[in-house]
Specification:
It is built from ten helices and six strands, in the order E-H-E-H-E-H-E-H-E-H-E-H-H-H-H-H. With 215 residues, the chain is of the alpha/beta class. The chain folds into two domains: 139 residues, 3-Layer(aba) Sandwich (Rossmann fold), CATH 3.40.50; 68 residues, Winged helix-like DNA-binding domain superfamily/Winged helix DNA-binding domain (Arc Repressor Mutant, subunit A, Orthogonal Bundle), CATH 1.10.10. It has a six-stranded parallel β-sheet, sandwiched between helices. Helix 2 packs parallel to helix 3, helix 7 crosses helix 9 and helix 8 crosses helix 9. InterPro entries: CheY-like_superfamily, NreC/VraR/RcsB-like_REC, Sig_transdc_resp-reg_C-effctor, Sig_transdc_resp-reg_receiver, Tscrpt_reg_LuxR_C, WalR-like. Keywords: DNA-binding, Phosphoprotein, Transcription, Transcription regulation. One of its GO terms (biological process) is regulation of DNA-templated transcription. GO terms for molecular function: DNA binding. This is DNA-binding response regulator.
């Protein structure tokens, strides 16, 4: 894969570059500040971008703004956002468009090499990769709470769906059959009023849009 990296922390940036090149990917550009990000993405049109949310000069949301602008210019550009903390507003804004190929991971996850690479590949392929802590925050902060109608097992399934897991992986993680997972997913969609025919990343984004108060 061809990757653009935007991260102001030089040590982390070079670590990601080394990690990706060692895994056989090509880092076509790096950016160390917000104004550098969009030009790099438009110039190289990578298979996936790895972007820090907060970058110089303001350390607010420069990376996220660049990612959203790039996705307007390059529809469907896969973007994996990194953040130091769970920032609900940023997660909701990134996911609110309902587009494919989006991820939001906490920076600690980069150190878990296999998990990070798996998330990057899922995003590049048009899927979704959300940090489990982000999903938990989104679920627990929702107050108007049809989630209360879900059983504990259905909530587990919903969380794994939101992380971007497919049915087979969910079954293995929960040590249940594929048929049981399909039944739980059907129950989740029915209780949340979401179309049961949605599949893949679209069903994940529909659940996330619901959790974030979107349409």
């Amino acid at each position: 894969m061809r990757v653009v990296i935007a991260e102001d922390n030089a040590l982390l940036r070079e670590g990601i570059v080394l990690l990706l090149t060692s895994a056989g990917h090509e880092v076509v550009a790096v950016a160390a500040s917000g104004p550098e990000v969009l030009p790099a993405l438009l110039a190289h049109r990578p298979d996936v971008a790895v972007l820090d949310v907060r970058m110089p000069p303001g350390f607010r949301d420069e990376g996220l703004r660049a990612a959203l602008a790039a996705r307007r210019e390059i529809p469907g550009l896969p973007v994996l956002v990194l953040s130091q903390y769970v920032e609900e507003t940023y997660a909701a804004e990134l996911l609110g468009g309902g587009a494919s190929g989006v991820g939001y991971l906490l920076k600690d996850r980069v150190g878990r090499v296999d998990e990070f690479l798996d998330a990057l590949e899922r995003v590049a392929a048009g899927g979704t990769a959300l940090d489990p802590e982000v999903v938990t925050e989104l679920m627990t902060r929702r107050r108007d709470n049809p989630l209360d109608a879900l059983t504990p097992r259905e909530r587990e399934v919903l969380q794994l769906m939101a992380e971007g897991r497919d049915n087979t992986t969910i079954a293995k993680l929960l040590v249940v059959s594929d048929r049981a997972v399909s039944k739980h997913i059907g129950n989740v969609f029915a209780k949340l009023g979401l179309p049961p025919s949605d599949s893949g990343h679209r069903r994940v984004l529909a659940v996330l849009a619901y959790l974030n108060g979107g349409s």
